Amino acid sequence: MSLLSRSARSALAVRRAAAVPTQAARFESTDASSSSAAKPAADKKSDKKVPAKQPAKKREVSFEDRELERKLNLKERVRKQSELERTTLRPDQQKSYNAPYAVYPKRNPWDINKLPEFKWDEPSSAGFLRIQQIEEMRSLMSKAELDRPALQAQAEAHPFKLPKGQIRVQRTIDLSDPESPLQQKAVVIAPVSALPLEGADALRRFKVLAGPRWTPGWPGRMELEQAAEGVGAEGYVKISEETYATMRMNRKSASDMLERLVAAANDANSPLPKDVQADPRYMLMRAKKRNGGARDRGLTIEALKRNPHRVGGVKGFPLEWLTPKMQEKALAEQTKQTQKQ
Question: Which residues lie within the region annotated Disordered (predicted)?
Fold first, then answer.
């Protein structure tokens, strides 16, 4: 630069000074152009309304895809449940999730084919029952051994004596239904020979008054099998009661009814004749119903063996219930029927 002349150096300085404003002007022109271009865009944006965003269209999923997704979710839930049980339950309490049916919900949880395999790690049901019986017997034997001195002292002070009175057997049937009328029903069954009846006339009157409540044998299917001797020689009487709300009240009512029957049979001034016999037709009908319409051929009662009479079109009506005049008329009609045959 020192070799240049003074005139050359001044010309170079003038050229440099002229070049600087040229770049500034260029920068200013670019800024102005950019601002002028942005302004119309802003005006255009403010004038034109932007449309709302349209919701994205849902992708249509086929039934197979949904079923596959459901199975995958179910498998994931089973896996999480299995992990939770492994961390919180004992090994004997954990379920087996390896079977293929574990992926799907159980429709029948009591299905014997879906039970886990028995590993003989605990007693069976029969084993538990046997253990319970052994425990009960052990507790009774321990109580008897501990209370032996007290029991011996009690036996020496008050020896056991057989009761002189009659033994009453009471059976109770619980239906576990308090609303059922049969739950409160009471039935009294007593042998006629054990009742305080005074003489043969009272015994005959009692059978007539009892009606269908009296049977020669034990009530039920054995009611026609009369015992030759013993307690059931005179048959049994059965009285049932279900009128009242409690079983105790019904039992008291049936017992009172039996006492009234005994008192009426022992009444010497009873209007019933002494020669009146019991009517056995109800037993014939019950035997016919039990045998499907066929009468029982093994009847051992003399009253059922004889050929029943017909009185006024009624078969088996007792002749003893009629007046002497009507008895003669019925016997005459029976004789005519026998001669025709």
Answer: 1-97
